[in-house]
Predict the 3D structure of the following.
Amino acid sequence: MQKELPVTYLTRLLAVCTGAILLTGDPAASQQRTGWVSQFEGLAVFQGNAGLSAGGEFSASRAFVRGGGLYRFDSGASAGLFLSYGEFSYDFSFAGNQPWDRIRDVRISAPVRFSVGETATVFVSPQVRWDYEKGAQSSDGRTYGVFAGISWQVNPNLRIGPAFGAFSEVGTDGTEIFPAVLVDWDFSPNWNLSTGTGLGATQGPGVILSYQHSDAWSFSLAARSERVRFRLDNTGLAPGGVGEDRSIPVVLSVAYEPNPGVRVSAFVGAEFDGRLTLDSATGTEISRQDYDTAPIVGLAARIRF
């Protein structure tokens, strides 16, 4: 009989609403000049209490920072290098039965973007990641992969095209491949529907519906499907094992951008359809359970120069 454990992990989503889309080059923000554009971002999130299907509850907090630069050529092509670091802390109601404590997330990405013909734009972003519990070997949580796609400017208000992600996974020999659709659609004055990644997101683009209220203020509703795996340390309920978290976060945000170089966001939302699994070091599933809808609130900031 499978043993159920009070397991949880705050998913790596939550800044899909920050508006930082450097993975695809963020062309609107960098078209005004060539040369280097540097960017630094920060994120702080609190997750309120959420019940676990095996009993008990948990809360969590999270911090994430990212820095790097993007070089834009005279041709309009761009290439960049970014480094990010995140750390996550958890508070379980069953202190003696805590599956993990602090999880670290380190990433290096090198996005490249260039035009093909008059209307097509290609981007490729190879990435290396380390997802592991504090105390575990970072190399045991290393994964790598690429997110890439092509989009066409169909008309002045719509850019669309296919994309895909292919990433190795912690604890398995397989590769996860998932499709995506790139959309940037100004379907009405001040309204936009788009896909894009944000600080701390785990996989491909989420969906963002945004409203530009004024030059400085905007509002957005964002959703995405999240999945992440991470290596555990050699103590606890599954020594050397792997944890996994799946959920669908939905976030409502308000952003203030007094000038193109500064953006501050506040957001509230919830994680839906959450599921946690715990695997042993040999790959045997030890626990699988759901958790209740979890409320989340947070702040994000970006400086670009």
About this structure: Residues 22-106+182-304 form a domain with the Porin fold (CATH 2.40.160.20). Residues 27-30 form the longest helix (4 residues). The CA atoms of residues 131 and 140 lie 8 Å apart. The two ends are 57 Å apart (CA to CA).
